[in-house]
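4.2 Preliminary Data

To establish feasibility before requesting continued support, the project team ran the inverse folding procedure on a target of 449 residues. The structure was first converted into the token representation described in Section 3, and no sequence information of any kind was made available to the design step. The complete token record follows.
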């Protein structure tokens, strides 16, 4: 423990962490390991944020939120190595379906890959020049700034591809952004590719190929291990007020919690649900009000009978833009699907989801569906974070800047794998490190006792 200044007002904690996703949990762990008294407040009745591995009525535990990890993600890989966790490969596929020119096409993985390659390669060419050190955004290169002016759609129009190749490339980035390619920054495509060594095929692999064996809950437990932070679940924060000396956090049940510093880990699209006094900077508020692109959905489906492994893609104006087989379950098949607009499809309406799936496979009969609408969830307001044009060049630096005794952290604010579990770990650890090194938390007159 540390010896605090007797003249300082009594506090409930040295640091209050708001939000118990990966960023909040790792920040609380690293701070508490340094001897800081940490109180973590989580509005849900569980930790994990936008990751949620739970039992499903489809017959087996499923990941309702963030799922896929990769050894290219350094913070994830470090935690998995330290705690002896393993990767589980995603199932392979035998055939690909896609909608192009208003018709359904079917071919081998190799034939489809040859069709999509020109658009994907064209969109990601120059990634390493734009982001030579992709885990450090700043100073940002001129080519990255220029790319951040354009959307995915803008850049595709510049490539001069034929309509078919343009359409299939758009559909792939619709899946990656979980939103419209007209609203997603081209710079983000370059950034993700740079994180994969300049190879766009590795972006696809990182987005799909591996999961945490046993579920993301095992990774969360591993990150939390060794933490001495106090945790309070089902505690909704409504206000964060600060002055020169302290931060006061107000909860929905009328409680006031006082701390020396606060780490707020809400996603960008949910940041406006907390009232800050004094208000956050104009730049932070403008970024939060503009929001980010990913307001789609993820849906699990149980289909009757065994189905030959496949994956399917569709244009961004379709309710489902991707679907594919995942598991066999008691003689049936469990499929996974994504769509770019949560308002277009009720995840729990089996008939509606089946109708969307029939755009490729009218032969499939669905028995049940499962999912969580993260976009409608007021604690998230989004799925995974994907930036709009201008975000990287104009907004992210301001979002990362401390606001008095308040700091933002989370996958939405990461330098590297923003929108991924790895980005949440990066941002949470950075917030903890900077609090320890840039503030009065560990003063020179503090001595162990």
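Position-by-position output of the design step:
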């Amino acid at each position: 423990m540390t010896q605090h200044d007797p003249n300082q007002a009594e506090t409930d904690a040295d640091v209050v962490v708001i939000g118990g996703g990966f960023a909040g949990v790792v920040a609380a762990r690293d701070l508490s390991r340094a001897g800081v008294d940490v109180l973590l407040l989580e509005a849900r009745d569980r930790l994990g944020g936008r990751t949620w591995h739970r039992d499903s009525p489809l017959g087996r535990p499923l990941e309702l939120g963030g799922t896929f990890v990769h050894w290219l993600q350094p913070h994830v890989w470090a935690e998995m190595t330290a705690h002896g966790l393993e990767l589980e490969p995603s199932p392979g596929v035998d055939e690909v379906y896609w909608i192009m020119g208003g018709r359904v096409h079917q071919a081998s993985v190799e034939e489809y890959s040859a069709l999509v390659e020109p658009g994907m390669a064209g969109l990601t060419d120059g990634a390493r020049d734009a982001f030579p050190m992709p885990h450090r955004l700043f100073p940002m290169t001129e080519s990255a700034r220029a790319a951040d002016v354009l959307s995915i759609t803008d850049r595709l129009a510049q490539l001069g591809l034929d309509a078919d190749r343009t359409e299939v490339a758009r559909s792939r980035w619709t899946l990656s952004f979980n939103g419209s390619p007209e609203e997603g920054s081209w710079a983000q495509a370059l950034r993700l590719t740079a994180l994969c060594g300049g190879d766009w095929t590795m972006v696809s692999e990182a987005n799909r190929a591996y999961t945490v064996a046993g579920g993301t809950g095992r990774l969360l437990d591993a990150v939390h291990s060794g933490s001495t932070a106090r945790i309070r679940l089902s505690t909704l924060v409504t206000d964060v007020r600060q002055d020169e000396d302290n931060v006061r956090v107000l909860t929905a049940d009328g409680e006031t919690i006082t701390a020396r510093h606060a780490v707020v880990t809400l996603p960008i699209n949910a940041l406006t649900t907390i009232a800050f006094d004094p208000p956050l900077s104009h730049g932070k508020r403008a970024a939060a009000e503009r929001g980010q692109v990913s307001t789609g959905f993820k849906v699990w489906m149980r289909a009757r009978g065994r189905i030959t492994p496949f994956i399917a893609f569709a244009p961004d104006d379709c309710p489902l833009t991707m679907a594919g087989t995942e598991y066999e379950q008691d003689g049936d098949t469990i499929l996974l699907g994504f769509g770019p607009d949560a308002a277009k499809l009720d995840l729990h309406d089996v008939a509606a989801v089946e109708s969307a799936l029939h755009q490729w496979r009218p032969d499939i009969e669905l028995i049940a569906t499962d999912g969580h609408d993260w976009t409608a969830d007021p604690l998230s307001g989004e799925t995974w974070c994907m930036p709009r044009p201008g975000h990287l060049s104009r907004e992210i630096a301001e979002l990362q800047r401390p606001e008095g005794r308040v700091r933002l952290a989370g996958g939405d604010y990461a330098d590297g794998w923003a929108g991924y579990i790895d980005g949440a770990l990066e941002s949470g650890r950075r917030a903890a490190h900077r609090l320890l090194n840039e503030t009065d938390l560990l003063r020179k007159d503090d001595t162990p006792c």
